[in-house]
């Protein structure tokens, strides 16, 4: 609990570092993209690893919950202080420390914005591929904590593939350095990769060493439209049979296409279209051009209604509108969007869409689905009128059925958004009691008093203590 003695000790150890206790100041740190949560008791904005370590030590000593916050774009409530305590806002740790174009790596503080690093390295002919749709807002520390993915993951992999090393503060206050600047390292357990995707529950990341690759010379964007979702999925299979590895294969269903058309006020796809694929191929100019021709042929084979190829950057941006406008288009006054990021083996996407149709019929719900077809990672949005309690209740039943079905299809309940507190009650659908217990023993080793991001990932016997 935050006591006057704890606050006094915090201020004494932090010098000029901002310690915010006013309700208005704290309100800005009470939400993420999932929604608004409880107010933290205190917000600290450190600018140095030593300050982070001092806060962790004091929280450990006083048994105060400590929650790390990046840019607050998480979809599962991970950065929200469900049990009060201290929110460590990392926004002042935002420097690109080094871009090394001989060793192809960058060293950054955690709150560098993803797109800012991408622009900085691209200006030097280098490439940092992970591209969550939130890249203009999300932080690299948040990306590491959630192991963020994005459209390019099919070809280039998710954040994990690019993390070579970390500096991190343990919840007990020690500073550790994991991995190295070398691309090979098999010394001891791989703590770097254990921390990637740990959702701010094991340690506070204060510095990240990231692998870079050379920037592809060209990328070409195509938009193919189809009369049915099955035809679009057939095109994905055809692409893979042609041994093509596009940088992006984004699948958008009819419900989502109609929502975007309403949102932007114009039809973006031909009449009779109930699914679309947005494809991006990249590489040398010759290789990208050849792949674009093969990709268009694969879509035509699957019965595409149209295949448009962007000839200019402006056209490329227009084609991407379909994908980029999805998130705002699906929100609306009074609409509660229950957003999931389930994954199935790619060949089972048709079964996943058949399941969505069954859920629509059985529960009378609007469901919009789109996502990274190359990875089988589909964002399923259950759209309900938030004033309609019965519909909200039906959506919750449907989400459990969705998760059970996805696991039966040998997939996963989350491909990139993580568990946070929103999906913690469903952990047991995918993991066995023994697996959960093993993870809890790992958590215990890092955080013996359980102060770091409590109530996240693991199902709780009781609801969060504060509301
Ligand atoms: C419109 C929109 C589109 C999105 N698209 C994608 C997408 O395509 N792919 C995808 O993967 N995600 C996507 N997301 C989800 C979100 O952007 C990612 O999960 C992102 O990685 C979160 O980064 P953040 O900086 O906002 O983290 P926050 O929301 O601040 O925190 C997320 C978690 O990370 C922990 N954390 C943050 N910083 C640190 C640190 N320095 N050390 C330890 N733990 C830390 C927090 O405690 C919390 O548990 C999207 C979100 C939105 C709103």
Helicity level, as a percent range?
A: 25-40%
| Strand ordering within the main sheet | 17-14-16-15-19-20-18
Main sheet, how many strands, which sense, barrel? 7 strands, antiparallel
Number of strands: 20
Strand content: 15-25%
Name the bound molecules.
Answer: flavin-adenine dinucleotide
Can you give me a brief rundown of this structure?
The protein is of the alpha+beta class. It has helices at residues 4-14, 23-27, 49-62, 114-122, 140-146, 153-156, 191-195, 229-241, 254-264, 285-301, 313-324, 326-330, 349-363, 389-408, 427-430, 433-446, and strands at residues 19-20, 31-32, 35-36, 42-44, 66-69, 86-89, 96-100, 105-108, 126-127, 163-169, 175-179, 204-211, 213-214, 218-226, 248-253, 275-283, 306-309, 335-343, 366-372, 377-385. The protein has four domains: 4-89, Uridine Diphospho-n-acetylenolpyruvylglucosamine Reductase, domain 2, CATH 3.30.43.10; 96-214, Uridine Diphospho-n-acetylenolpyruvylglucosamine Reductase, domain 3 (2-Layer Sandwich), CATH 3.30.465; 218-322, Alpha-Beta Plaits (2-Layer Sandwich), CATH 3.30.70; 331-424, Alpha-Beta Plaits.
Account of the protein in words:
The chain contains 16 helices and 20 strands. Helix 1 runs antiparallel to helix 3 (49-62), helix 8 crosses helix 10 and helix 13 (349-363) runs antiparallel to helix 14 (389-408). The strands form five sheets. It has a seven-stranded antiparallel sheet with strand order 17-14-16-15-19-20-18, with helices on both faces. The chain has helices at residues 4-14, 23-27, 49-62, 114-122, 140-146, 153-156, 191-195, 229-241, 254-264, 285-301, 313-324, 326-330, 349-363, 389-408, 427-430, 433-446; strands at residues 19-20, 31-32, 35-36, 42-44, 66-69, 86-89, 96-100, 105-108, 126-127, 163-169, 175-179, 204-211, 213-214, 218-226, 248-253, 275-283, 306-309, 335-343, 366-372, 377-385. The protein has four domains: 4-89, Uridine Diphospho-n-acetylenolpyruvylglucosamine Reductase, domain 2; 96-214, Uridine Diphospho-n-acetylenolpyruvylglucosamine Reductase, domain 3 (2-Layer Sandwich); 218-322, Alpha-Beta Plaits; 331-424, Alpha-Beta Plaits (2-Layer Sandwich), CATH 3.30.70.2740. 36% of the residues lie in helices and 22% in strands. It is α+β, with helices and mostly antiparallel strands. Mean pLDDT is 94; it is low at 462-467. The chain starts with a helix and ends in a 21-residue tail after the last helix. The structure holds flavin-adenine dinucleotide.
């Amino acid at each position: 609990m935050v006591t006057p003695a704890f606050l006094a000790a915090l201020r004494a150890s932090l010098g000029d570092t901002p310690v915010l206790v006013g309700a208005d100041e704290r309100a800005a740190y009470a939400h993420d993209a999932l929604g608004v949560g409880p107010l933290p008791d205190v917000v600290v904005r450190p600018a140095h690893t030593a300050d982070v370590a001092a806060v962790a030590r004091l929280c450990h000593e006083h048994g105060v919950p400590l929650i790390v916050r990046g840019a607050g774009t998480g979809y599962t409530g991970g950065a929200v202080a469900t049990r009060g305590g201290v929110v460590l806002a990392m926004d002042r740790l935002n420097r690109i420390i080094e871009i090394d174009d001989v060793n192809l790596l960058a060293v950054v503080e955690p709150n560098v914005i993803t797109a800012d690093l991408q622009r900085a390295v691209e200006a030097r002919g280098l490439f940092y591929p992970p591209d969550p749709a939130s890249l203009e807002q999300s932080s690299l520390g948040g990306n590491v904590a959630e192991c963020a993915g994005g459209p390019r993951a099919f070809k280039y992999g998710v954040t994990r593939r690019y993390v070579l090393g970390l500096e991190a503060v343990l919840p007990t206050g020690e500073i550790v350095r994991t991995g190295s600047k070398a691309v090979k390292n098999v010394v001891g357990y791989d703590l770097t990769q254990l921390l990637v995707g740990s959702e701010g529950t094991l340690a506070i990341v204060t510095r990240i060493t990231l692998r870079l690759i050379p920037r592809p010379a060209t990328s070409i964007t195509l938009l193919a439209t189809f009369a049915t979702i099955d035809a679009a999925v057939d095109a994905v299979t055809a692409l893979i049979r042609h041994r093509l590895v596009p940088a992006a294969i984004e699948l958008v269903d009819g419900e989502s296409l109609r929502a975007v058309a309403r949102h932007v006020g114009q039809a973006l796809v031909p009449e009779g279209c109930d699914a679309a694929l947005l494809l991006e191929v990249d590489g040398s100019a010759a290789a990208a051009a050849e792949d674009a021709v093969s990709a268009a042929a694969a879509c035509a084979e699957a019965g595409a209604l149209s295949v448009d190829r962007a000839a200019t950057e402006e056209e490329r941006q227009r084609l991407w509108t379909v994908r980029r406008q999805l998130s705002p288009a699906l929100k609306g006054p009074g609409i509660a969007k229950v957003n999931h990021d389930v994954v199935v083996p790619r060949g089972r996407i048709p079964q996943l869409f058949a399941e969505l149709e069954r859920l629509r019929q059985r529960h009378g719900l609007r469901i919009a689905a789109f996502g990274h077809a190359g990875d089988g990672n589909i964002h399923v949005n259950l759209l309900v009128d938030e004033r309609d309690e019965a519909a909200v209740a039906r959506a919750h039943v449907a989400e459990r059925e969705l998760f059970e079905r996805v696991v039966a299809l040998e997939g996963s309940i989350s491909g990139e958004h993580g568990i946070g507190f929103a999906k913690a009650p469903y952990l047991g659908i995918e993991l066995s009691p023994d697996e959960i217990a093993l993870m809890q023993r790992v958590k215990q080793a890092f955080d013996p008093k359980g102060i770091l991001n409590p109530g996240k990932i693991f199902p709780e016997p009781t609801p969060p203590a504060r509301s």
